[in-house]
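Running low. Invent one:
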Amino acid sequence: MSKEKPLSAKQLAVIEDLFEGKKEQEILEKHNLSRKLYEKWLADDAFISQLDRHMAWEYRRSELMLARKARDAVSDLVGLTKSQQSETARKACLDIITMRANRLAGTPAVPVDNPTSAVPQPLSIETAGKILAVLAEEKTARISEKLKK
């Protein structure tokens, strides 16, 4: 396995600018870079490898941000199941069920290297009852609609 050649400071700066949301043409002009050279870099394994590592890091940062806020978000969502507006309560219940289904399907909501922090807390009897009531109401409405047709 050959060692990757190090990228130039200009190449690293271009990658940083790409992640700041700047348009390609702006970046080319800022760094006095020709389209031809830029396209050559995009075909270079070392450049692409660094770009891929940067993308992976950005996704990891996003996951970390979600993980830090997950408890508050879930708490807010559970609170919405008690909303007086039935549509809001129904959507909150469905979101909770979807989150649970994703978790059971193996889609982690927290970093895999700390699975114990992902142990779900049991729903209260009141919240579980509310979820079931909303689901039953929704199913009854669908059946009524089918019968009307």
Summary: Confidence is low (pLDDT under 50) at residues 110-119. The radius of gyration is 24 Å. Residues 67 and 110 are 5 Å apart (CA to CA). The chain has six helices and no strands.
